[in-house]
Amino acid sequence: MPSTGTREAPLAIGESRRLSDESAWTVQLNASNPDGAAVVAAENEYLPGPVPGEAFLIGNFSVTVDADALAGQGIDLANEGAAAWAHVWFEYVAADGTSFDVTSGTMCFTNGALYNAGTLYADGTSTGDVCIAVPVDKLPGGLWRVANIQNDNVWISPE
């Protein structure tokens, strides 16, 4: 069991960890903006802002893939490719245990969204933003949670 990156001992901004020993994915939170409405508005004038009582939380993540680990799972990265956004999911878990993801609340995204980072066909890293609408009263004390389909996960402090 890892000693860091758990809910009890989350990673700090700038720290990275593989989701699990068996996982091909390593994640790192580069920056976290709990009030990203101005960023979203500046990049896309057609998106509505957050509703009253809601904030746009933006996390900039780097997600690195290990081709050898994927090969062990039967995936040929060189020929099949892998997109971070299709293999790794992001949510924000409030201190009271409620969670929010990209399908929660008002839709938000930036021009540098992680899902625009493309597919990797060799060992490499995708970097981009994840935007989640979160009730303002749920922001204090919450954590980012990043997981794969096997539910291996890493917890990261947004501060």
Automatic annotation (TrEMBL):
This is Uncharacterized protein. The lineage of its organism: Bacteria, Bacillati, Actinomycetota, Actinomycetes, Micrococcales.
